[in-house]
Amino acid sequence: MGGRRILEGVRVVDFTRVVAGPYCTRMLADLGADVVCIDPPKEGATGPVRTEGSVANNLGKRSITLDLAHPEGIAAARALIARADVVVENFRPGVMDALGIGYEASIATNPRLVFASISGFGQGSSRRAYGATAHAEAGWLWVQQQAVGTPEPFAPGVTVADLVTGQTAFSGILAALLDRERTGRGQRVDTALMDCQFQMLTEVAGPALNGAPPEAWEPFRHPVHRTRDGRHVTINIGGEHNWERIARALGHAGEPMPPKPAAANALVGSWVAALDAEAVTAALASTGAPYGLALTMHEAARHPHLEERGMIVEVDDPLEGRVRAVDSALFFSDTVSSATGPAPLAGQHSREVLREAGYNAARIEAALTSGGVREQRLPAS
Predict the structure, then answer these.
(1) Rounded to whole angstroms, how far apart are CA atoms 253 and 295?
(2) How far apart are CA 347 and CA 318, in angstroms?
(3) Within this chain, do residues 255 and 338 fall inside the same structural domain, yes or no?
(4) How far apart are alpha carbons 16 and 37 in whole angstroms?
(5) pLDDT tens digits, one per residue of 188-219
């Protein structure tokens, strides 16, 4: 999609993998940043190798393959960092320092650099973690368990901690870039899965932070009602201002709202159970009552709202030809946020990235010959 983008000209060196980091840097790329993924060599690969992370989280990026255990690989990484605006990495704390490309070493040569680190427990801890670690230890699994009333905790269907951490890192990078405009200096952005997962629970953590015992916990869930034809609808009453709309839509105009939420929800559930889903949603829509019809992922992917808003993008892909993916949820009046191109193969852009970093043709060939830098060409069409 054409149009001016807020982060045009911002260079990002992306050392991340898995979910949180690629999710963060995809959002930077959507805003126009030039994101270059640093991919490790894949020894023994028998076919084309994609960059680290999912296709959806890598749209609009480029890739160079560097062996960070090789002097030429580290030299290339330093050259990229020296001209970058942002570095994003999610190695275990201390790894980048050991490689000689950590925060202190990097800002010594590039004091305007924003250096964003994503980890499990922050830069002061060497403990390894995935999103599942934060789900467990920040209380999220327990909160889910209490809400549903199951005898044992259960994992969510998506890695919530990774996504909220990626969003937090994205926000921190934007804030640090703004601060750099004021001070002329970059800084470190330190985000941790554990912290971000716990911050997401800010409302439900209140009682536990203020002395309420576990047995006093009151789980909160929006009600989900079953329709006569076996579909499910969520209807959040919210208060008396919505009750009248709901009651009128479902054929019970004038029915007083029960004072207790459980009783009010149960009454709405009995009304919904007497109607098919199509009748329920049409009636609620006619009175302006908020509702949601539970959809499968396949049904949601065909939701007319998402098509109308441009939330689904179709881009070229070096292996599949064309792929459809979720697009940016940011909409601006004067600028664009959207996928700018396909997800790269690992090392697809090694030569051009080195050239932009100041390497001449002879030095590029030497780096590639050394094995410290690798490249991968697109498959023949």
Answers:
(1) 28
(2) 13
(3) no
(4) 8
(5) 999 999 999 999 999 999 999 999 998 888 88
Same domain, 109 and 165: yes
209 has which bridge partners? none
Q: Which residues contact 315 (CB under 8 A, 6 or more apart)?
A: 59, 322, 323, 325, 339, 341, 342
**242 and 339 both lie in a single domain:** no
The model's pTM: 0.94
The dihedral region occupied by 210, where left means phi > 0, alpha psi between -120 and 50, and beta the remainder, is: alpha
DSSP state of 124: T
Is residue 193 assigned to a domain? Answer: yes
Q: How many residues does the chain have?
A: 381
CA 322 to each of CA 55, 304, 315, 317, 343: distance values in angstroms, whole numbers, following the listed order: 11, 21, 6, 5, 11
Question: H or E stretch including 157?
Answer: none
- Give the domain range for residue 260: 232-293
Across the range 122-142, mean pLDDT stands at 95
- The pair of structure tokens assigned to 159 is 């890695």
Place of tokens 């330190």: 190
Q: Which amino acid is at 127?
A: R
Q: Element (H or E) spanning 155, and its range? A: none
Lookup result for tokens 């949180």: 20
Buried b (16+ CB within 10 A) or exposed e, 248-287: bbbeeeebebeeeeeebbebbeebbeebebebbbebbeee
Amino acid at 59: L
pLDDT tens profile 316-330: 999 999 999 999 999
Domain total in the chain = 2
* Pairwise CA distance, residues 239 & 223, whole Å: 14
Residue 136 in tokens:
């467990």
Which one, of 38, 43, 46, 108, lies nearest residue 74 by Cα?
38
Tell me the two tokens of residue 88. 């994003």
Nearest CA among 79, 2, 68 for reference residue 38: 68
Q: Is residue 220 part of a domain?
A: no
Return the amino acid letter for 45. A
DSSP letters for 161-223: HHHHHHHHHHHHHHHHHHHHHHHS---EEEEEHHHHHHHHTTTTTHHHHTT--GGG-------
> Per-residue pLDDT tens for 240-249?
999 999 999 9
CATH at residue 56: 3.40.50.10540
